[in-house]
Write a sequence for this structure.
């Protein structure tokens, strides 16, 4: 065999290894970028969900406060009515 045959084989193998490495790196980086974008979207969705849950909880707290005030008012009226009924008896 001639000395050029080995250099061609080594060169072809080196070129193949280089192309394989570059392609693997490009695919890996593309996948990492894609995963990062998906994670950002997921985090935004979680943030929206948390904000809507917080808003719903605040609305529930306000409604509960209104109901408590009305119940206290009704309790006061009931106490007044009981006093009137006791005086009438």
């Amino acid at each position: 065999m001639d000395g050029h045959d080995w250099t061609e084989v080594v060169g072809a193998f080196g070129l193949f290894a280089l192309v394989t490495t570059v392609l693997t790196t490009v695919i890996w980086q593309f996948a990492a970028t894609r995963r990062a974008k998906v994670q950002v979207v997921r985090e935004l969705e979680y943030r929206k969900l948390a904000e809507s849950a917080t808003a719903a909880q605040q609305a529930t707290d306000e409604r509960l406060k209104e109901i408590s005030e009305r119940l206290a008012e009704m309790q006061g009226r009931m106490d007044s009515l009981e006093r009137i009924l006791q005086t009438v008896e």
